[in-house]
Structures are given as structure tokens and as C-alpha cells.
Amino acid sequence: MAIHMAQSKGWSSVWLECDSTAVVDIFKGNKPVPWKLSNLMNKCNRVMMDMQVKVSHIFREWNACADKLANFGVIYRMDHWWDSPPLFLLHEFHRNLLLLPNYRFRGL
Fold first, then answer.
1. 54 and 68, same structural domain?
2. Does 107 reside within a domain?
3. What are the backbone dihedrals phi and psi of residue 26, each rounded to the nearest 5 degrees, phi first?
4. What is the C-alpha separation between 74 and 97, in angstroms, rounded?
5. What is the pTM of this model?
6. Residue ranges of the RNase H type-1 domain (predicted)?
């Protein structure tokens, strides 16, 4: 969806960062596309032919904004686009701008 959104906005250069190495490997052609996603990936590949696309891995802790947005999408089961950071994301957004670290702790 990010690639199609970038295309609709007229962007020709896109950098996708993903916390899933499996997804990064699929985009880079190092891993086969699951058959359920093959049609969608074929459409995506056709769009990406006209773009400069970089795909890289990022640890979840290094991108708290993306992690929070992904959790929002899972909880509310909706696709949404914001042209500015939504209110629930402002804390992480400002921490990211200031290059402050993010930590994740597991309870015992």
C-alpha cells in the first residue's frame, strides 16, 4: 500500500524501512513471495519499475513512530493517511526528531 500511496502522490523516490527481515528479503528478491500475496506483489513490482525504491531493515526500537502506527492499524483495522503526525503519535515523533533513544522492556 505504501508504494501505491507514493505513486498516487507523484513520488518517484521512496525509502521503505521495515522491521521484518522477511519482508525486506521479499522486496529485494532474496526470498519467495507467499502465494497469497503474489498478485499484490506483482502489481507492486510494476509500479516500482517507474520509481527509485530502497528497502531496508530497521529494528522496531529505532522506529517507534512506525511501530505505533502499525499497532494503530492492527487495533482499528483501517487504512489511513495523515499529512501531519496524528495526536497519538506526537510524543514519539518529537523524540525521533531529537534523536532520543527508545527502549523496550519485557515484564517478568
1. no
2. no
3. -65, -45
4. 25
5. 0.70
6. 2-72
Q: What is the pLDDT of residues 79-97, one digit of tens each?
A: 777 888 899 999 988 988 8
Our count of domains for the chain comes to: 2
Residues 8-31 pLDDT 10s: 999 999 999 888 899 999 999 999
Rg (CA), the chain: 15
Are the C-beta atoms of 97 and 63 separated by less than 8 Å?
A: no
**What is the domain extent for residue 20?**
2-58
Tell me: do 10 and 54 sit in the same domain.
Answer: yes
User: Residues near 72 by Cβ (< 8 Å), separated by ≥ 6?
Assistant: 88
Can you spell out the DSSP letters for 2-19? HHHHHHHTT-SEEEEEES
